[in-house]
């Protein structure tokens, strides 16, 4: 009887402690960086009533032991270190750790670890825990004198000094690091291409350059010497054709003569007779174009051709390569900030070029081009192949400075996507630089 009471009491005592832990969790719902606890139980030793036995003859089975438990005990109160929710406090010195780790603070020779980042500056400018007065510790050499960057920490002193209101000299931008993605789905520049809507045929067969105009299917009447084919439309730049008519000799004028006249009329394009009998005009250079060709018989002609069923239509619309734009803030030697624009353009060979510009009020871009930015088949960065004015540097003369400033560009390690990559996702760029005001 007494054993059964003691066994039950052990369970009650354990669950009493569990309720205390749960109550503590509830009481600290709004405690900064509080980590809740959970209670783990284990059973106590068992009282053996009868031992186990095994069969030696093979005629009987084994017999299990008879054991009576003597209760339970509190074995562990475990902390739950799952990441909690981060909340903005509006105070610049309130810090939080996302993930594993602790803030390290010291008081004299004693070291303490905390997840609570409600810090402030003491009267000497050191970051501290105002609840305890412990000083927050730093690691590494960031902020210590290195001859390059401004220093505000003392070598060997692990306290974190924050000199509010202190002035430091500016540093000119010397390098720019680019990262992100230039989409592999981007399209390079396209040359505008026109084609006659129908093929020029003679006897149902595609015409050749030697086919006379009077032999074409669709020719009616009788051309006489002096009849004219009027050439209208626009060249790539929007101006009128250089040649506006082809004078016909019905005995000798051929499709080849018409092609030659069109090439003279539209020198920014190449006009050819395709194998299927269609006349095709392709701009010599890619980009936006106003090229348009209109052919018709002169009103006074004795004969005519069905030019209305052979109208020129656009097969490919001229366009520049797809572009990706980004702005960046750079600093001159005095620490003054200047904004530049970076424009990446997809080229017809699959590479990218970058052109950098700056507002006239901010300075002059002496060399803002980077050419031949290429990527491997797996999308990792390969190289930049431009030289001279197309190499991986830009040169800018900022307003108020006596000389131009050369800035090195980094696109990442070749064979990696540590910087720029070319993957199938949307283009997105990030720019970082080493200057400051």
What is the average of the pLDDT values?
A: 91
Basic shape: elongated
The count of β-strands is 33
Termini, distance in Å? 83 Å
The oligomerization state is single chain
Content-based structural category: mainly beta
Low-confidence stretches: none
Number of domains: 4
- Strand residues, percent: 35-45%
CATH C-level class of the largest domain is Mainly Beta
DSSP summary: helix tally: 2
CATH architecture of the largest domain: Sandwich
Looking at the structure, the CATH topology of the largest domain is Tick-borne Encephalitis virus Glycoprotein, domain 1
What is the radius of gyration computed over CA atoms, rounded to a whole number of angstroms? 42 Å
The CATH superfamily of the largest domain appears as Flagellar hook protein FlgE
Helix amount, in percent? Answer: under 10%
Largest sheet entry: 6 strands, mixed
Give a quick set of tags describing it.
437 residues; mainly beta; Tick-borne Encephalitis virus Glycoprotein, domain 1; 4 domains; 2 helices
């Amino acid at each position: 009887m007494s054993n059964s009471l003691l066994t039950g009491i052990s369970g009650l005592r354990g669950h009493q402690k569990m309720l205390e832990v749960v109550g503590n969790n509830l009481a600290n719902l709004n405690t900064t960086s509080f980590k809740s606890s959970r209670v783990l139980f284990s059973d106590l030793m068992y009282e053996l009533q009868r031992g186990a036995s095994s069969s030696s003859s093979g005629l009987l089975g084994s017999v299990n032991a008879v054991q009576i438990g003597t209760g339970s005990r509190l074995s562990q109160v475990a902390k739950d270190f799952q990441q909690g929710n981060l909340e903005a406090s509006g105070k610049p010195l309130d810090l939080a750790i996302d993930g594993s780790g602790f803030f390290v603070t010291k008081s004299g020779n004693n070291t303490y670890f905390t997840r609570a980042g409600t810090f402030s500056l003491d009267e000497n400018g050191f970051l501290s825990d105002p609840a305890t007065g412990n000083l927050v510790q730093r690691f590494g050499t960031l902020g210590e004198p290195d001859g390059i960057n401004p220093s505000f920490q003392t070598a060997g002193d692990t306290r974190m000094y924050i000199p509010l209101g202190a002035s430091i000299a500016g540093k000119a931008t010397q390098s720019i690091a680019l990262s992100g993605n230039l989409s592999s789905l981007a399209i390079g520049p396209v040359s505008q291409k026109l084609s006659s809507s129908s093929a020029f045929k003679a006897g149902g067969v595609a015409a050749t350059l030697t086919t006379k105009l009077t032999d074409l299917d669709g020719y009616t009447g009788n051309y006489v010497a002096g009849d004219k084919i009027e050439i209208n439309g626009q060249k790539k730049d929007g101006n009128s054709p250089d040649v506006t008519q082809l004078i016909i000799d019905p005995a000798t004028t051929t499709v080849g003569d018409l092609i030659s006249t069109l090439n003279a009329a539209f020198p920014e394009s190449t006009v050819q007779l395709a194998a299927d009998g269609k006349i095709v005009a392709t701009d010599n250079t890619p980009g936006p174009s106003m090229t348009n060709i209109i052919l018709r018989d002169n009103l006074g002609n004795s004969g005519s051709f069905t030019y209305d069923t052979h109208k020129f239509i656009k097969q490919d619309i001229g366009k520049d390569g797809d572009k990706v734009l980004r702005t960046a803030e750079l600093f001159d030697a005095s620490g003054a900030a200047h904004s530049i624009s970076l424009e990446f353009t997809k080229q017809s060979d699959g590479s990218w070029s970058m052109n950098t510009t700056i507002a006239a009020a901010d300075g002059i871009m002496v060399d803002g081009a980077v050419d031949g930015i290429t990527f491997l088949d797996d999308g990792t960065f390969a190289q930049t192949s431009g030289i001279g004015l197309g190499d991986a540097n830009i040169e800018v003369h900022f307003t108020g400075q006596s000389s131009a400033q050369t800035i090195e560009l980094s696109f990442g390690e070749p064979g990696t996507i540590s910087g720029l990559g070319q993957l199938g996702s949307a283009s997105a760029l990030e720019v970082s630089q080493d200057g400051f005001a």
